[in-house]
Amino acid sequence: MSWGFLRDLLSGVNKYSTGIGRIWVAVVFLFRLLVYIAAAENIWKYEHDEFECNIKQPGCENVCFDHFFPISHIRLWALQLIVVSAPSLLVVFHVAYRENREKHHNQKLYRSPGERDGGLLCTYLISLILKTGFEIIFLVLFYKLYNGFKVPRLVKCDVRPCPNTVDCYISKPTEKMIFLCFLVATSCLCIVLNLSELSYLIFKYSLKCYLKKHIKKHQ
Amino acid sequence: MDWGALHTILGGVNKHSTSIGKIWLTVLFIFRIMILVVAAERVWGDEQDDFICNTLQPGCKNVCYDHFFPISHIRLWALQLIFVSTPALLVAMHVAYRRHEKKRQFRKGDQKCEYKDIEEIRRQRFHIDGSLWWTYTSSIFFRLVFEAVFMYAFYFMYDGFRMPRLMKCSAWPCPNIVDCFVSRPTEKTVFTIFMIAVSSICILLNVAELCYLLAKFFLRRSKKAGNQKQHPNHENKEETKQNEMNELISDSCQNTVIGFTS
Asked: Domain named Connexin cysteine-rich: which ranges (chain A) (predicted)?
């Protein structure tokens, strides 16, 4: 089980997506998943080993690291990728449910199980809303946990058993900040893509409904 | 998900590229991505562990390392490769869109559609003409821009392409000017020069491809203009027929719309 599973899942969703949805999948693959695996993971690899405090008191470094990093940036990033991709499963499940239903009744119930109409459209819209919601939640979480998106070079720690206020130095703060900014930028891009797709679908299908009603009135 | 997945995505684009584009893709995968994964990552693997400063002051090493390497070479290369590969996706999306349109025409039973079955549409190789030419040319242009930007960023951040053995650091909390020693500076210089050289080759290939596409475009235009001059009557007859058809289509469309609204 690895990121390949997520890649396969998203490729499956691609079939039932709009054009904007496919751009979203491409952005998630290339600018988030690939950057995470190829570059970002290695920056945070030895973060605890390289976290250094100006003190010989045993346990002080451990406690200070835990105090400033309740959950590491990189783990939060991975969680965000998984949670944000998960709502796409709803669409896949709904299509599978439709196909099963057709098989069970042994007749053609839908024009095409993958066509975005009726219930599948609602599922798709819900998945878009959930994706956007999760993105925003994780951005807010990042902001609140780390007091912004900056990674300082030096943090001052006075948690027991550190005897006084102790200087602790974070490793590679500039590089971490660059990649955090990259993460925030791609998240915002994904939010914009999701909102555009939502507006596009709502507009398209309201127009369709309106035209249908209009034709019925005149018939 | 790794570079292999990128290879799969870009491999699809390869079918619709020019010969220079295929050479560029091969150079990208063999001389850049493979070298990055197989060799360069190991050279930079222990970069902070083996970065040693001549001081016992805690925190001095961390701060000096961060000061001299705001972003590691290896990460910058990974980002460069990702950004440089991305414009090819524009072409992949355009080709997928064209295929989708042809499939739709085929399903409607359009007489104009010359394919025997869907499989043929899937396997077909599109020529770079019309709007696909513009997409392809823009993708090459963006590739060039990204390559140039990253090479400049490299040069600007590291004051050239050489990795020095010794760096003098006086950032706080280092007490004075402290000597810091970089691990494997010669090996890193060799790989840096290699990657820069291959980047330059890729830039040259992109420029050549751009020139080739522009030359082809202007040649085709002059051929068309030449043909028009030689057979004006024939072209006029074709044009009149097309105009008549267009009028018929627009008339029938108007009738349909009127039918809807009345």
From this structure: 134-201
